[in-house]
Hints:
There is one protein chain. By secondary structure, the chain is mainly alpha-helical. The protein has a domain at about 1-30. Helices cover about 80% and strands about 5% of the residues. It has a two-stranded antiparallel ribbon. A hairpin with a 2-residue loop joins strand 1 (about 60) and strand 2. Helix 4 (about 70-80) runs antiparallel to helix 5 (about 85-104). It is flat and about 55 Å long. The two termini are about 30 Å apart.
Amino acid sequence: MTTTGIWMVIGVSSTAMLLMRLFGYLLPPEMISRPRILRITALIPVVLLAALVSVQTLTVDGSITLDHRVAGLIAGAIALYFKRSFLTVMASAGLVGAMVYNFL
């Protein structure tokens, strides 16, 4: 996919999300407050962030690559598992990623 195509996809999806958000204000509250709708809308940001992290971490030029970024991601996930602060998670992920990059 070309750079222009990627930016077109980003623009179209951003516009679609904006229109969906604006359309949400026009819907009656009974329709939005259904349990299934609430579960789905709660998971959308999580799914989008997970997709972004996985694509940015595991791919280089369209192919899957395991490198220093994966080690940093794993270190950050371990810090999150132990409920560390955001700064600790970022620092541990950065340090492990840098050490793997420089020493392996």
